[in-house]
């Protein structure tokens, strides 16, 4: 195989093969050492959950409310934060705390994207089914479905279309994550965007990119980031 692939959103190229590992996020998921602190401050997480709850009530409706616990795990089996429905708990792997504690703002934004994604799951789970009947949510979900239906993987002489049915459950959590990022990191959509977007890209073989594209319950990360940003901008327009 050529190891030469392209992710497209319609006519726009979102990502192509990349030969170098650059970001701290990529170094972490490849188990490389980075000299950052893993100190944990529990009070920070309590405030994060409270502030997210207040903001989401503000942009949607006050009746939509949620509560979460956020805990840290040292388990090597957990790579990304996960939301546990039964206990209303978000479990964060200690490795990602390195990004939260980094002096690099891009690292912090990457950390909070994944944490806010799980907060999005908590918000939706604890307010179902009424949240899915809410006009703003229905409108943005339709927008997201239309956008993701345009995502394609070009590899060798093949073009693969994204299976929207496989990944649609992650659309709204990603959107909520990007809404919270816009609120708490005002420079993200402007000055930081190029570096933030690039921090997720790394070398992937043909086999790896096809496996991610066809089997992962999330869409390919570059599509998630790009489309979620577009959705937030669309949502901001609806609020005018």
What is the averaged pLDDT score? 91
Gap between N and C termini: 49 Å
Order of helices and strands: EEHHEEEHHHEEHHHHH
Q: Give the overall shape.
A: globular
Count, helices = 10
Taking strands numbered 1, 2, ... along the chain, how are they ordered across the largest sheet? Answer: 2-1-6-7
Structural class: alpha+beta
Total number of strands: 7
How would a crystallographer describe the biggest sheet? 4 strands, antiparallel
Write structural notes for this entry:
The chain has 240 residues and is an alpha+beta fold. The protein is built from ten helices and seven strands. Strands 2-1-6-7 form a four-stranded antiparallel sheet, with helices on one face. It has a three-stranded mixed sheet with strand order 3-5-4. The model has no long low-confidence stretch (mean pLDDT 91).
Q: Descriptors for this entry?
A:
single chain, alpha+beta, four-stranded antiparallel beta sheet, 10 helices, 7 strands, 13% strand
Give a short summary of the structure.
The chain has 10 helices and 7 strands. It is an alpha+beta fold.
Write the layout of secondary structure elements.
Blueprint: E1 5-9, E2 12-16, H1 24-29, H2 42-59, E3 69-73, E4 82-84, E5 89-93, H3 94-100, H4 105-126, H5 135-148, E6 151-155, E7 158-161, H6 164-167, H7 171-184, H8 193-198, H9 206-215, H10 221-239
Parallel strand pairs: 3-5
Antiparallel strand pairs: 1-2, 1-6, 4-5, 6-7
Helix pairs in contact: 3-4, 4-7, 5-10, 7-10
